[in-house]
């Protein structure tokens, strides 16, 4: 499968063909997603909670994103890769954002960067776009700033909030964003944004009216039992299978039934003879 271009993604929107995105954090997750035909891999800063064990995405550093971004690009098998800019890396100034963004693109080989925020981030989108970096906006529930949003709650339930989201979507498109992710946004508001824009709109907890969908790799495969939001559907239940496999391994080692001769390297008769009394 050849890598999707931004133009092709826009055509898919026009034709009503859904875009499928999943997060990936390393070579194995990228390879599995690529093998399954997932269109776009997102190296989300959900890395912080899903892989690194932090309480939120806030502590994630640029170095950590680069470390994992490089691995995903190596395993992506030609898929389009989007890399999250972590909290603090695009908040100071346009110049600082550009320095960080250029470093992240140059060192990882990712295809695009994603940043969170409403119309206040349009200068950052413009600065990155001027340097030729494709930018994905992320609006709605923005995990880097949940405190200011009043916790993990659905966005766009009031006329005022809906207006702010719709206006932000237009402003971000106008500033040159190639795509938007809408997280935990009331279905009708997300559908309205999708209909009023010409860039692909990818939802997560934003209903079925978007141009595509993104889910976190470990959540959609049932590898994570500590996160059960309403919008999450588990498409496999791998955690019990993984635990059962590890338990079987531990039991076999403890009983002495593993490794058996089929999984070992015994000497052949000639090699044994040549060893003489050196071995039993
Ligand atoms: O960090 C992430 O995984 C994300 C998705 C949830 C959209 O931003």
Walkthrough of the structure:
- The protein is an alpha/beta fold.
- Helix 2 crosses helix 4 (62-75), helix 4 (62-75) packs parallel to helix 5 (94-108) and helix 5 crosses helix 6 (122-130).
- Strand 6 (179-183), helix 8 and strand 7 (201-204) form a beta-alpha-beta unit.
- The chain is built from 11 helices and 8 strands.
- An 8-stranded parallel barrel has the order 1-2-3-4-5-6-7-8, surrounded by 7 helices.
- The chain has helices at residues 6-15, 27-35, 47-50, 62-75, 94-108, 122-130, 159-175, 187-196, 217-220, 238-255, 269-275, and strands at residues 19-23, 40-43, 80-84, 112-116, 135-140, 179-183, 201-204, 212-215.
- Bound molecules: 3-methyl-2-oxobutanoic acid.
- Residues 23, 42, 44-46, 84, 138, 181, 183, 204, 214, 216 line the site of 3-methyl-2-oxobutanoic acid.
| Total count of helical runs of at least 4 residues | 11
Please state the average pLDDT score.
96
Give the fraction of residues assigned to helices. 40-55%
Low-confidence stretches: none
Which secondary structure elements does this structure contain, and how are they paired or packed?
Elements: H1 6-15, E1 19-23, H2 27-35, E2 40-43, H3 47-50, H4 62-75, E3 80-84, H5 94-108, E4 112-116, H6 122-130, E5 135-140, H7 159-175, E6 179-183, H8 187-196, E7 201-204, E8 212-215, H9 217-220, H10 238-255, H11 269-275
Parallel strand pairs: 1-2, 1-8, 2-3, 3-4, 4-5, 5-6, 6-7, 7-8
Helix pairs in contact: 2-4, 4-5, 5-6, 7-8
Bound molecules: 3-methyl-2-oxobutanoic acid (KIV).
3-methyl-2-oxobutanoic acid is lined by residues 23, 42, 44-46, 84, 138, 181, 183, 204, 214, 216.
């Amino acid at each position: 499968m050849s890598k999707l271009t931004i133009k092709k993604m826009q055509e898919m929107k026009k034709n009503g063909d859904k875009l499928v995105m999943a997060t990936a954090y390393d070579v194995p997750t990228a390879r599995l997603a690529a093998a399954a035909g997932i269109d776009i891999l997102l190296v989300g800063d959900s890395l912080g909670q899903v892989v690194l064990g932090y309480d939120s995405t806030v502590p994630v550093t640029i170095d950590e994103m680069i470390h994992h971004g490089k691995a995903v690009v190596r395993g992506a098998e030609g898929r389009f890769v989007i890399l999250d800019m972590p909290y603090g890396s695009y908040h100071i100034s346009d110049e600082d954002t550009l320095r960080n963004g250029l470093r992240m693109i140059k060192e990882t080989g990712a295809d695009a960067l994603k940043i969170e925020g409403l119309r206040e981030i349009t200068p950052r989108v413009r600065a990155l776009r001027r340097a030729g970096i494709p930018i994905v906006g992320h609006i709605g529930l923005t995990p880097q700033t949940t405190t200011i949003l009043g916790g993990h709650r659905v966005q766009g339930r009031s006329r005022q909030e809906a207006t702010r989201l719709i206006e932000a979507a237009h402003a971000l498109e106008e500033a040159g964003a190639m795509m938007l992710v809408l997280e935990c946004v009331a279905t009708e508001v997300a559908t309205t944004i999708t209909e009023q824009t010409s860039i692909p709109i990818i939802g997560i907890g934003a209903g079925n009216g978007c141009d595509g969908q993104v889910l976190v790799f470990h959540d959609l495969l049932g590898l994570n039992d500590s996160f059960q939001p309403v919008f999450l559907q588990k498409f496999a239940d791998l955690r019990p299978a993984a635990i059962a496999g590890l338990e079987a391994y531990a039991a076999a080692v403890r009983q002495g039934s593993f490794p058996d001769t089929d999984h070992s390297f015994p000497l052949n008769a000639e090699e044994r003879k040549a060893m003489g009394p050196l071995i039993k």
